[in-house]
TrEMBL record:
NCBIfam families: PEP_mutase. Its EC number is 5.4.2.9. InterPro entries: ICL/PEPM, PEnolPyrv_PMutase_core, Pyrv/PenolPyrv_kinase-like_dom, Pyrv_kinase-like_dom_sf. This is phosphoenolpyruvate mutase.
Amino acid sequence: MQENSDSLLAGSHDRELDLSRADALRREVCCSDSLSFLMEAHDGLSAAIAERAGFKGLWASGLSIACSLGYRDANEASWSELVDAVERIVDSSRLPVLVDGDGGFGNFNNARLLARKLRERGAGGVALEDSCFPKMNSFVGNRHPLADIEEFCGRLRAVKDTIGKDLVVVARTEALIAGHGMHEAISRAHAYAEAGADAILIHSRSSSADEVLSFARIWQNRSPVVIVPTRYYRTPTSAYRGARISTVIWANHSMRAAIAAMRQVCDRLVAEENAATIEPDIATLEEVFDMFDYDELARAETHYLHPITLQQARSKPSPAA
């Protein structure tokens, strides 16, 4: 009975933590009077680095997670692989995580299953896009069929009925990506807000921010607006503040930075066959150990291991000996 009681208490504590992350994300995305920024994370390391840099929230990027697993961003990674990656991101920082849930990996039933699993793993929110399964990355090719509005609203309602206020639900419309124009984007945003979405993510592949700024002007802040300036990165941030944009997502920058850095180091090691000139340009082992608080493990060892056990463990010969 005591074990069951302890398990219930632990579960209650975990749930409180998850809800606090959802509340923290809601403050960043939905309730903040100032512009918020979410940084991409695709694993525990990128999450820890983003937190140390000072970001207040994370974007679990579908593209970046797919790349880290060796997949294309075309629903080649399964929903369970996404959920597992999110768990590592959540466990590696204290920041709220908004998860790129693509279109929900199918119909309303797949979407609500995904949302329930993300809640269990500690996510703070999920963004669902009005794409058809399987989706294709927004910046690849020109074929981006949109889901029927009513069908996608059904996905949103199913998710909200499943998780209530435990997750922030962001509805992402690909209307501009698919070339359907502003009227379609606005119509879909209205429908998605009525279906229960907490915020609207308006996506664009244009190199100018004119489309998203026009959307924000017409939308008139009926609900928070989230943008992803991957292509229109030259736009000054003041333009987003002036348009009362709620949240900017830096959607893939850690992954792209990692690719560039790893490629450079690998090329140099192949060419030079020596690491002497490379060491000054890469993180030290001490920085790696500090990132994940190895000192805490030593303190815990002293606290929890019986002194005799600790002494025996340290004096025990290694297998190689």
